[in-house]
Amino acid sequence: MSGYFDSIAPVKFAPETAHEAGALAYHHYNPDEIVLGKRMEDHLRFAVAYWHSFAWEGGDPFGGRTFDRPWFPADTMALAKQRADEAFDLFRILGVPYYCFHDHDVRPEGATLRESRARLEEIADYFQAKMEAGGPKLLWGTANLFTNRRYMSGAASNPDPDVFAYSASIVRGVMEVTHRLGGENYVLWGGREGYETLLNTDLGQELDHMGRFLNLVVEHKHKIGFKGTILLEPKPKEPTKHQYDYDVATCYGFLKRYGLENEVKLNIEQGHAILAGHSFEHELAMARTLGLLGSIDMNRNDYQSGWDTDQFPNNVPEIALAYYEVLKDGGFTTGGTNFDAKIRRQSLDAEDLVAAHVGAMDVCARGLKAAAKMLEEGRLEAARAARYKGWQSADAQAMLGKSATLASIADAAEAAGLDPQPVSGRQEILENLVNRYV
Ligand code: XUL
Ligand code: CO
Out of 43, 52, 89, 105, which one is annotated catalytic? Predict the structure, then answer.
């Protein structure tokens, strides 16, 4: 049988290759290059997302499938295996160390929960053989609790307890398969965990059910000995009008409320940050500050459309500031860079799928190198530290100590006749500084 990617050779680091259209070579991503004492591949930990590249058919709200893949509609186990063959072929061509999947991407749903689970196990065996034969590792697995109409009013937050129970079965199945395949994380994205209208929604009850569900997931993780990280993926809206895991700060409040802040971290996606009205670096800095930075879903939104367009990244300055936060956090541990990104529906060819990943990996490599240099040279950090240097004095520190009171601080300020003089925030100077690295 001829393969979908047969005409495409494995992509190598070959910066001398001409930058002409269609040249499939890495110009910046050099897996073995040492950056801040670590191989580039071990910093970036790239993963291909199964769903966008192998399950999505090119549809949009106004039109259906545009792609013509030999494994579509993948509604039989034979086609699901053909899809797996092609997916692992793409992973090999790209030389990526990881991949990610939902249950729904990799096997057709069965007639019963038990049949769905058996099919997932069968595909996991198929994956395992390919992984043992030199394929990539699993960065994370996740359950699709949003596509089927049974989830239209939520999964853990559904008013119907049977959907809560059904979801428990699905999540248990995918977690156990993720564990068996050596997955390094397990992700929960609550695409339908939210509401369309408050008129029919008991917000407090739904949050309690979600908190309980996540506690059950964490308990099960410990019970089966899964050593990976459980990750929530914030997103403010789309598909629902309002999603409970709105952004990093909201997730932190949720985790604190349900006692999970030391058990669960976050998978942060650029497009979701933008939908929440934040920059990617804001979400990453917030997660780093709160001790929740787990992994990233790398993509970009179209800045004009206002949708989660899940495009491959191509903006080096944005990516540099994102990896700056990752590096400041000490780099990824179990996390990595998952391309939760899809090619445009007019990009029909196998070569488009490969080129999208190649370009994105180069963009990330440039961003990582710029971030590492910025951190190494320390100018940005020195400028930031200088802005706060007043806080190094003993008097300033005493205000933060337990013995200070509002009145003691106020009395001292009045006695000293304080009259603080504003100093420049130097934003343009710092932007000029960053521009020298990107
Ligand atoms: C949806 C999204 C998902 C999650 C996994 O916007 O990002 O693909 O990453 O369910
Ligand atoms: Co995502």
Answer: 105
First to last CA, the chain: 45
Ordered alpha helix ranges (H), 133-180 = 161-180
Catalytic residue of the set 27, 28, 52, 102: 102
Which contacts (CB < 8 Å, 24+ apart) does range 287-291 have? 287/248, 287/325, 288/325, 288/328, 288/329, 290/248, 290/249, 290/252, 290/261, 291/261
> What's the pLDDT score for residue 2?
84
Per-residue pLDDT tens digits for 53-65? 999 999 999 999 9
Ligand 1 center to residue 399 CA distance, Å? 44
Residue ranges around ligand 1 (CB below 6 Å): 102, 142, 187, 189, 191, 233, 235, 269, 297, 308, 340
Cis peptide bond prior to 422, omega within 30° of 0: no
CA distances from 214 to 101, 187, 221, 232, 245 (A): 20, 11, 10, 9, 12
- Would you state the torsion angle of the CA atoms of residues 282, 285, 291, 293, taken in this order, to the nearest 10 degrees? 70
Q: What is the pLDDT of residue 338?
A: 99
Sign of CA dihedral 157, 162, 163, 168: positive
Question: At residue 58, what is the residue type?
Answer: G
In angstroms, the CA 214 to CA 189 distance is: 11
102 is catalytic: yes
Which of 103, 142, 231, 270 to probe ligand 1 with, by most ligand atoms within 8 A of CB? 142
Q: Which atom of ligand 1 is nearest to the CA of 310?
A: 6
- The string of pLDDT tens digits covering residues 83-135 is 999 999 999 999 999 999 999 999 999 999 999 999 999 999 999 999 999 99
Active-site residue flag, 42: no
Output the CA 382–ligand 1 centroid distance in Å. 37
CA of 324 relative to ligand 1 center, distance in Å: 23
pTM strictly above 0.85? yes
Q: How far apart are CA 84 and CA 395, in angstroms?
A: 64
Domains and CATH numbers, the chain: 15-377 (3.20.20.150), 381-437 (no CATH)
Could you give the 3-state DSSP secondary structure of residue 14? coil
* Token pair belonging to 25: 């070579």
Q: How much is the CA Rg of the chain, to the nearest whole Å? A: 24
